Structures are given as structure tokens and as C-alpha cells.
From TrEMBL:
It comes from Weissella viridescens. The chain crosses the membrane at residues 7-25. This is DUF4352 domain-containing protein. It comes from the Bacteria. The lineage of its organism: Bacteria, Bacillati, Bacillota, Bacilli, Lactobacillales. Keywords: Membrane, Transmembrane, Transmembrane helix.
Amino acid sequence: MKKSAMYFAFSMLLLILMGVGYLWMQGGLAINGQVGAGKRSEKAAESSVVYDVPKSDLKSKNFVKNAMPTRQGDYTVTRQGVRVRLAEDKAIQGEVTSGPVSYKMKRIQLLQNEARTEQAQNVVRKALNVPNLPKNYTAAEIHYDITNHTDQTILTDGVATVSYGYKDVMTTLGGLVNGSELSNEGIAPGATQEGYAIVWVPKQSVKSFKTFNIEFASTYNADGREVSEKTPQLKVNI
């Protein structure tokens, strides 16, 4: 993955799962005190209270300081007080095409999260646009490759919908957030670019979360003209 893609992926993962949505948008990105580039507005600074990680966490062999966990069972705690635990990390398969654009599934990570403070819960609820998001919740980070078979750069939001369980359909209107790079930088002619989306998995669907259906959004050129339509629904096994 390009450095820019890694930056966007890391930033967006923090934005959604680590409860720093409005702070990141205003230039402040941090894990337990590490702040990213940019100046935070006075209002955001006043509303940000750094969570004091308990000694029991600091002493845990599974605790990862100032970074996202990469081993199953490990966890970190954000500055707002969200515990993020990596529960599963699996390769997934599946391909779908819409016109001159193709998609290939890569991997999925399941993250078990706990908002330990009211501030953390409120911010994550706003970021995911799920007003009733519980204190303990599960999220899935879905990675895929998109290939542009045209002779022009294309832009796309990424994933349009992810559905599973009983009437659980996540969209950008609620429960689903895409990484930024595909819509900001786009995919160059003939190139393949990694994309990802983060979705909420409701409690009633966690145990049966063995498959999901995914649809990818339309793509456009720099003039705003549609290059490819939304893809057919693709069923993916976990």
C-alpha cells in the first residue's frame, strides 16, 4: 500500500473506532496523547478530555500503547477512552465487476470495542451515525482492491452497502464509513488501489456473522460523469 493510503487508513480507523471524529476533522488526531499534524480549534480542545489508562491495562501483556493492535487478542485504549480489541483477522475472497472497474476482496478484521466514557460513546455514535450505539459494540474493517481498466482517473466513495443478519443493512447514512483516498485521490488509469470500509455489526448479528453481502458505489471521472454503475451484490464468506 502507498504511504498515502496507509495514512488515510490509519486516520480513518482512528476516526471511527477510536472516538476522535470531530477532533480529526478539525486537525487533532491522537492516541493517548500523540497528536497529529494541524491545529485543533479551541472549542475542540476544550471538549477533549484525555482518558487516564488504568494501571491494570498498562501492565497487561495484551495492551498495545500508542498503536493499533496487530495480533488477535491484543488491544489499545484511545485518548477518549475507547478500548479497541482485535478479535479476528481473516483473508476473504470474492470478485465483482461493473463495466471497466473490478473489485477483489482481501481481508476483514473484527474489532470488539468498549466506550469507557460518556464522551467516547457520544463521539463514536456521531462518527458512525448510530444514535443508539451501545457502550460495547463490534465493528468490521473490510479491505478490498479496486482496479481501473480505463484510460482516465476515476473517483468513488467505495462501498455503498454491507448487509448481514436479519434486516441489518449498513450504508453511509448509518453504520458504514469509507476510507477517504478513493474519493480524494482516485484510482489512476490502469492502476489497482486498496480501499476499505468500517461497518457496525449489531449485537444480534455478531454470532451469526459468517457471511455478508457487499455492494460497491458508482465511479466517476474528474468531470463528474459516471464511469461505472453500482455493482451487483456480492456474497462474501468469512
